[in-house]
Amino acid sequence: PAIRLARDGFLMDWYGTLTFGTSAARLHKNAEAKRVYYLAGGAPYRPATGFEPPDRLAQPDLARSLESIARGGAKVLYQGELAAAIADDIRALGGILSREDFAAYEPGAPPPQTVDYRGRRVVTLPGLTGGPTVARVLGLLDRDDLRKHRQLGAESLHRIAVALRAAFAERLGSMADMPNTTHVNAVDRDRMCVSLTATLGGGFGSGVMIKGTGIVITNGTYWFDPRPGRPNSIAPGKRVLWAGAPTIVLRGGEPFLVCGAPGGRKIMSAVVQTVVNAVDYGDAPQIATSRPRIHDEGEKLQVDSRIPDDVRADLATMGHEIEVKVEDVLSTNFARPGAIQIDGSELRGGVEGTKIGIALGF
Predict the structure, then answer these.
(1) DSSP conformation class of 355
(2) Of 140, 159, 132, 136, nearest to 148 (Cα)?
(3) Same domain for 137 and 3
(4) Looking at the structure, do residues 129 and 54 belong to the same domain, yes or no?
(5) Angle at 269 between CA 264 and CA 235, to 5 degrees
(6) How far is CA 179 from CA 84, 99, 182, in A?
(7) Cα–Cα distance, 262 to 270 (Å, whole number)
(8) Residue 34 and residue 118 in one domain
(9) For 48-81, what is each residue's pLDDT tens digit?
(10) Nearest to 132 by CA among 182, 168, 185, 181
C-alpha cells in the first residue's frame, strides 16, 4: 500500500495544504524537497476549491526507493545503492555521514520493558526511549488506587502529576534525552498486534530530501547534548535518547490494549493517561485517547484548558504551578494518542479527537 500510495499519489486536502504551506520557508531551501512537494511556482498543492478538484501529489522516486527496500531488505538502506545515494548527497550538502557509517550500523533488539499494572502486564520499548519512563510512572501509580478518586478530578490528576514528575526527574537526570512523529497501531484477525512509533524529529525532519530517492532526512542529531561528559552527550556510535513509547497491555496473557502516540516528550504522559483511562476507568479507546490530559516534567503542571476551573484551582492549592494549554488541530501540547482495544471478538479503535487521525477497520 505504501508503494502504491507513493507511486499513484494522494489527493490533497486542507490539512495537507496547510502543513506544506507553513513548512514552505524551510523546505524551499532544499531544491529536491521543493521540486517534489510543491508546484512549479513553489506554491503548495491545493485542496478542492469550488468547482476545482484537488491536486494530486505523487512521489515516484519514493515509490522506487520503497520497492528497492521491499526487494532487498534493510541492507539496501545501509549497504546498497540507497545507502550510497544518501551518503553521497549528505556529503555534497556539507554533511559528515559516509557510506562507511551506513555500512557499520547495527540495529538493536533488546527484550522489551515490562511492568505490572492493576494485574495486567504492560509491554513497551526498553533502553533510551520513552518506554522506561512510561513503565516507571505506571509502577508508581500501581501503588495507589486511582479508582477511589474521580476521573479528571484534582486528586487523581495530582497523583498522576506527582508520578510523572518523579519519573521525568529520573529520566532527565540519569538517562540520555519531537514533534514530527507518526504512530500506528494495528491488530489483525489472529490478534497479532503492532504498536509502531517512527519519527523524522522536527517538522519534515532536517528539511532535506535526498536527490532521486524521495527520502527526507531526520534532524535527530539535535537531541544529543553537545556538551561532553553528560548522559546524552554526542559521541561516535552512540544512540540518542528519544521519546517513543509504543505500548501493548496484556490481560491474562492476551492482548487487551495497543496504544502509542506522536508528540515528543508528551508521548509518555499521553500513553500513561490513555492506559489509566482504559484500565482504571473503563474508557473505550476513542474516549480514552480524547479526554483532556496533563503533563509535568518537574516545573509547571501543564493542564488542558478543557479541565474545569475548579479542578485547576484545587491543583494549585496542592502546590502545583498551573500552566493552561489550549489544544487545537495543529498543537502538540499533549501529544496525539491512538489506541485499539481487543474485547473478545471485537476490535475497537480510537484516536485523539482534537487532531487529524483515523481509526479504520477492514
Answers:
(1) S
(2) 159
(3) no
(4) no
(5) 40
(6) 28, 28, 9
(7) 9
(8) no
(9) 998 899 999 999 999 999 999 999 999 999 998 9
(10) 168
Virtual torsion, Cα 267, 269, 272, 276, nearest 10 deg? -130
Helix/strand/coil percentages in the chain, nearest 5: 35, 20, 45
Q: What is the value of pTM for the model shown? A: 0.89
Is residue 307 within 8 Å of residue 292, measured between CB atoms? yes
CB 274 within 8 A of CB 338: no
- The conformation of residue 223, written as its DSSP 8-state character, comes to G
Does any domain span residue 231?
Answer: no
Instruction: Give the domain range for residue 256.
Output: 113-201+244-351
Give the type of residue at 323.
Answer: E
Residues 256 and 154 in one domain: yes
Mean pLDDT for the chain? 92
CB neighbour list of residue 200: distance below 8 Å, 6 or more residues apart = 180, 181, 216, 218, 219
Give the pLDDT means over successive 10-residue stretches in the chain (362 positions): 96 95 96 97 95 96 97 92 95 93 88 96 93 96 95 98 94 59 88 88 90 93 85 83 93 96 93 98 97 95 98 97 92 92 92 88 81
Helices (H), 58-145: 60-72, 75-79, 81-92, 99-104, 131-141
130 and 197 within one domain: yes
CA-CA distance, 123 to 132, in Å (whole number)? 10
- Asked if 191 and 302 sit in the same domain, the reply is yes
Q: What is the spatial distance between Cα 178 and Cα 332, in angstroms, rounded to a whole number?
A: 10
Strands 208-209 and 193-199: unpaired
What is the spatial distance between Cα 301 and Cα 294, in angstroms, rounded to a whole number?
7
Q: Is 38 helix (H, G, I), strand (E, B) or coil?
A: strand
Could you give the number of structural domains in the chain?
A: 2
Pull the grid cell for residue 352.
Answer: 485523539
CB distance 251 to 317 below 8 Å: no
Strands 322-325 and 301-304: parallel
